[in-house]
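Entry 12.
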Amino acid sequence: VQLVESGGGLVQPGGSLRLSCAASGFTISSYYMSWYRQAPGKERELVAMITSAGGSTTYVDSVKGRFTISRDNAKNMVYLQMNSLKPEDTAMYYCYTTRVRGWGQGTQVTVSS
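Predicted 3D structure (tokens):
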């Protein structure tokens, strides 16, 4: 039972990235799914959450209008589309659900010119 994040990288301010989260060992369709991030020296924060059927989403204020969380239950995948990236979005990004104990390896997002 695990979540594996991918899609991070180095991008210039104003650029875009799409993060992916692949679930294995269980079916995500019954669970809320979330993306968290942790920047150096800061606490981990909830970035976005999506309900089990995808009908409702929640975002931290700092990413509203720029990030979009989505899910494909048939593929057992969760995504985070990040647009208009800012240097303050630089962090390690983690996928999370209550079904999986602990955290995965995350994917690094660095926004810099």
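Annotation: Strands lie at 2-6, 9-11, 17-24, 33-38, 45-50, 57-59, 67-72, 77-82, 91-96, 107-111. Residues 10 and 102 are 26 Å apart (CA to CA).
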